[in-house]
Known about the structure:
Layout: H1 5-19, H2 30-47, H3 49-59, H4 63-75, H5 88-94
Helix pairs in contact: 2-4, 3-4
Amino acid sequence: MATNPQQNLYSQLEHLQSKYVGTGHPDISRHDWCTNMARDSIATYLGHASLVDLFASVEGESRGRIRYHLLEKLHSPYGESKERVLSKKERLTQL
């Protein structure tokens, strides 16, 4: 008995979404998605010393100060979320 390839794809996608927070899910809010993208970008900047050096030379600041500001932004790049995301079950009960 052959399994449906589409069903297999969805099960793999659900596994990835449960394992890695940044991959998102169907109920993710715009704020959460943007926050994940910003955190990924900031982590990349911090991981590449040459990018930190570039930012420091452009802004006329020291490397340490640039790293400090990036680490501060990493905590909450867009502030706190003002909206509450409803699950599928909650949306269905509102109808």
